[in-house]
Amino acid sequence: MQNSSKYSKLIKTEAKRLGFLSCGISKAEFLEEEAPRLENWLKNNAHGEMAYMENHFDKRLDPTKLVPDSKSVISLLLNYFPSEKQNPESYKISKYAYGADYHFVIKNKLKQLMEFIQQEIGDVDGRAFVDSAPVLDKAWAAKSGLGWIGKHSNLLTKQVGSFYFIAELIVDLELEYDHAVTDHCGSCTACIDACPTQAIVADKVVDGSKCISYFTIELKNEIPISEKGKFEDWMFGCDVCQDVCPWNRFSKPHSEPLFNPNPEMLSMSKKDWEEITESVFQKIFKGSAVKRTKFSGLKRNINFLKD
């Protein structure tokens, strides 16, 4: 046990050095509480057309099925809250997509952390995850004491709010485990009240198929006409439930240069967006998560907001 405590401290210190906001560790085991929640969520078709959410049900709940012999889930948070915001009179992009695609930025940091663990501790096997595999990021982060799940189903942390990415290393190394923290949402319903499409259907339950992020990023077909006039100028993603959350008054700007936006993007007006060409799109969003919706998807979203 002495070693597991020493190793945990080493890992957390290195995570901080790599720029992570915080690091928590939990035992790699079956997520018993999450199983019925995930089952009901899928049963209610809250995933819309995101068919991939139905795959790997067992792996989502049991990290030992993803990484054989795994003992620990190391959860990490990386801040993305920007120091500068878009022109407030313009169409809006979710803050997480202002700069470089976070998948690449975080994967690189996780690779460095894994190499550090192998150098300092020895023969440790594991895998890195950045929301692109069947891992319930928020559940693991909450289990390892990095925050609690808010009513909007995002992870919340007292000191910093919720504008951060969550990632994991699942390793076959026994470590010292952290404990979950208490819920501090109280009777506040700011996120539920403010959601433009009423996508937060119950405490900690979001109907993904009603969320603006789903409509503007995941949905490949035309946006249903029934949603007309509800999007509050969001053309890629949506931050409403986070923007209104009282805990986000503690958000501080990130210090990751790769997350800094193209200055041109910040100053663009609605007219600029409406007239955007593919070459300007490619230039502004080079290496960005916005590429996920493609030029045609962004044009579709803008036209939907404009008409």
Which key terms come to mind for this protein?
307 residues, alpha+beta, 4-stranded antiparallel sheet, two-stranded parallel ribbon, 12 helices, 10 strands, 34% helix, globular
Query: What is the helix fraction of residues, given as a range?
Result: 25-40%
Kindly report the spatial arrangement of strands forming the biggest sheet: 1-2-7-4
Radius of gyration: 20 Å
What does the main sheet amount to?
Answer: 4 strands, antiparallel
Mean pLDDT: 94
Q: Segments where pLDDT lies below 50 for 5+ residues?
A: none
What's the overall geometry? globular
Number of β-strand runs: 10
| Total helical segments | 12
Distance between the termini: 63 Å
Counting structural domains, the number is 1
Q: Report the portion of residues in β strands.
A: 5-15%
Given the helix and strand composition, which structural class is it? alpha+beta
- Written as H for each helix and E for each strand, in order along the chain, the element string is HEHHEEHEHEEEHEEHEHHHHH
Family: Belongs to the QueG family.
Subunit structure: Monomer.
Cofactor: [4Fe-4S] cluster; cob(II)alamin
Main location: cytoplasm
What does this structure look like?
The chain is an alpha+beta fold and 307 residues long. The protein has one domain (1-307). It has 12 helices and 10 strands. It has helices spanning 2-17, 34-43, 57-61, 102-120, 137-143, 190-194, 212-218, 240-243, 263-267, 270-274, 278-284, 294-306, and strands at residues 22-27, 72-79, 92-93, 126-129, 148-149, 155-156, 164-171, 200-202, 205-206, 234-236. The chain has a 4-stranded antiparallel sheet with strand order 1-2-7-4, with helices on both faces. The mean pLDDT is 94.
